[in-house]
Design goal:
- The structure holds two protein chains of two kinds.
- By secondary structure, chain A is an alpha/beta fold.
- Chain A has eight helices and twelve strands.
- In chain A, strands 6-7-8-3-9-10 form a six-stranded mixed beta sheet, sandwiched between helices.
- In chain A, a hairpin with a 2-residue loop joins strand 11 and strand 12.
- Chain A is globular and about 50 Å long.
- By secondary structure, chain B is mainly alpha-helical.
- Chain B has a single domain, classed as ABC transporter involved in vitamin B12 uptake, BtuC.
- In chain B, helix 3 packs antiparallel against helix 11.
- The longest helix of chain B is centred in the first third of the chain and has 35 residues.
- Classes of the chains: A alpha/beta, B mainly alpha.
């Protein structure tokens, strides 16, 4: 996967025969077993599947976060494999929001504004002082997530949902063309889930590519595309509105879901 | 929601920095005035050569040395807590303290003398041995942890190295009982033997350490969000971690080599700063150094004053005060 000339138009990232090994010794197992897919540029793709299906592993692999020794196969971004990208340039292209960042207390003593400013690290020099563009990006992200009012409070003083919105603002502040979010709706109440949805749709309209791991299947079925995973294998990849997508969902969750048509969308209930 | 630009006020922590500098000067003046000779040497400074000697050769270097050692420990503590993402991390992790102790124990057993009876060349030698011990212990920890990639493995290896070297130090003490008292003094921590050469070495190490750590402050900020997020932000964690561990070893090793195992200053100084101002590491690191310096200097003055003309080992005082502070923190955290 070398020359840009062969890169299909409309594809942001390409994955070929991706296999990822996690754990060591007796605990070693393949979290992904040969996954190939194209991520559509300027679209919102939702990644769904039961616990342990490999959703987060796939997202980490898309972000290039695992040691090369654990990963086989190719992940390419805009025509270049991740390894071919200079690290900082890649960091400007790919923003990644960690799963469970809310329960991690490591940044509790940092003021919210400084947490969000960390999203600007890929744009700044080694000792770089924040530029006007950095401040603007941070303020924009704080406003977009409704976190502006707490900008001077330490992260540790916020509730779970508020923290999640600050961490989302941190990822937004990177202003990367591709955003990878692992369970971005964790700890968010329904109105703020709706806000997140509106934000993602606006970003996608503006040309950004968004990939999100979601446990909220109802919301996932509102995405443009859906990737259905189980046991480290891709069971479906394509538009979310197809009967095949819904059938794949029912299959990977062992028919323990019920899909109901409500007001032009799909509502998923556990069964 | 309007985008109101924040007025460019003084940077966060500026007030604390000024207060700490003022406190340093005040405590420094006290440090010159307190000692077994009381106020007199300072009053007789201009006329009496003996008084001049007491103030210039004993009290001044000791005062400056206590401040410098405290600053080194405060810096090492702030780096350790950021690097290991643990507010209870202590600069004596990674085995540096036990390495320094073992070095001193071996040197004392080999030479068969007490540090009190030594000229300052020998003392400098002892300092060098302690420093080498600290650095070797940290290197051993790094080898056992197979590098700096895995924080938990690094901490575990540090604990193992600390326990094994501590046991070896006790063994040396048992085999050469004549060194026990001197070794005890070192383990308790004391600023009594600090001379100008020590001050110069600590100041040099401190300046290098603060500069290097400050240049990596953004890596520490990034790490606070977790290793994966830091990596996704394009930070080169490997080399940065190695440099930060080196700063920690240099700062701790230098302080321990000159003042022994002064407890709690490295642990408490960053905590005190964070209790007053929540800020990034670029501000926290220098403030923690200043706080460490003020803490150890005040403890040293107190250690000289409470029992005058006798004096307490300053390490005992910092252990009691630091322990009390931590208990208070625990109590406050539970409520």
């Amino acid at each position: 996967m070398s020359a840009d000339t062969h890169w299909p138009s409309g594809v942001a990232m390409q994955v070929r025969d991706l296999a990822v090994r996690l754990g060591r010794g007796a605990a070693a197992h393949m979290a992904l077993k040969g996954v190939s897919l194209d991520l559509r540029a300027g679209a919102w793709t939702a990644v769904v599947g039961p616990n342990g299906a490999g959703k987060s592993t796939l997202l980490r692999a898309l972000a290039g976060l695992d040691a090369a020794a654990r990963v086989q196969g190719d992940v390419a971004l805009h025509g270049r494999t991740l390894a071919q990208w200079p690290v900082r340039e890649r960091a400007r292209q790919l923003a990644w929001l960690a799963q469970g960042g809310v329960v991690d207390r490591g940044a509790d003593d940092l003021p919210v504004r400084d947490v969000v400013m960390l999203g600007r690290l890929p744009h700044q020099g080694w000792l770089g002082v924040p530029t006007a563009a950095d401040h603007h990006a941070v303020e924009q992200a704080l406003c977009d997530t409704g976190a502006w009012d707490w900008r001077d409070r330490p992260l540790g003083a916020l509730s779970g949902g508020e923290r999640q919105r600050v961490l989302l603002a941190r990822a937004l502040a990177v202003q990367a063309p591709v955003m990878l979010m692992d369970e971005p709706l964790a700890h968010l109440d329904p109105p703020h889930q709706a806000d997140w949805l509106a934000l993602v749709r606006e970003r996608v309209r503006a040309g950004q590519t968004v990939v999100s791991v979601l446990h909220e299947i109802t919301l996932a079925l509102m995405a443009d595309e859906v990737l259905v995973l189980r046991d480290g294998q891709l069971r479906y990849a394509g538009p979310s509105e197809t009967p095949e997508a819904r059938q794949a969902l029912l299959d990977v969750f062992d028919q323990r879901l019920a899909l109901h048509r409500v007001e032009g969308g799909w509502v998923v209930l556990p069964r | 929601m309007a985008l109101v630009p924040t007025p460019s006020t003084l940077p966060r922590g500026f007030g604390l920095a000024v207060a700490l500098l003022l406190l340093s000067v005040l405590a420094g003046a006290l440090g010159l005035a307190v000692g077994s000779g009381g106020w007199e040497p300072l009053a007789l400074w201009s006329s009496d050569p003996l008084s001049q000697q007491i103030v210039w050769d004993i009290r001044a270097p000791r005062t400056a040395g206590a401040w410098a050692a405290g600053a080194l420990l405060g810096l090492a503590g702030a780096v350790a807590q950021g690097l290991f993402r643990n507010p209870l991390a202590d600069p004596f992790l990674l085995g540096s303290a036990s390495g320094a102790s073992l070095g001193v124990a071996l040197a004392l057993a080999g030479l068969g003398v007490s540090p009190m009876a030594m000229g300052w060349t020998l003392q400098l030698g002892l300092t060098g041995v302690a420093f080498v011990g600290a650095v070797l212990a940290v290197l051993l920890t790094l080898v056992l942890a197979q590098g700096v990639q895995h924080t938990s493995r690094l901490l575990l290896a540090g604990v193992v190295v600390g326990m094994v070297l501590g046991a070896l130090t006790s063994l040396v003490g048992l085999l050469a009982p004549q060194t026990l008292q001197a070794l005890q003094g070192f383990m308790l921590g004391s600023t009594a033997l600090v001379g100008w050469p020590s001050v110069a070495m600590m100041a040099g190490a401190g300046a290098c350490g603060v500069a290097l750590a400050w240049s990596l402050a953004r890596v520490l900020d990034g790490l606070s969000l977790g290793e994966a997020t830091a990596t996704s932000l394009g930070l080169h964690l490997g080399p940065a971690r190695l440099a930060l561990v080196a700063v920690m070893a240099l700062a701790t090793g230098t302080a321990v080599a000159h003042t022994g195992l002064v407890a709690f200053v490295g642990l408490v100084a960053p905590h005190l700063v964070r209790a007053v101002v929540k800020t990034t590491h670029a501000t926290l690191l220098p403030l923690a150094s200043l706080t460490g310096g003020v803490l150890l200097l005040l403890a040293d003055v107190l250690a000289r004053a409470v029992w005058a003309p006798q004096e307490l080992p300053v390490g005992v005082l910092t252990a009691v005060l630091g322990g009390g502070y931590l208990l208070w923190l625990m109590h406050r955290g539970r409520r």
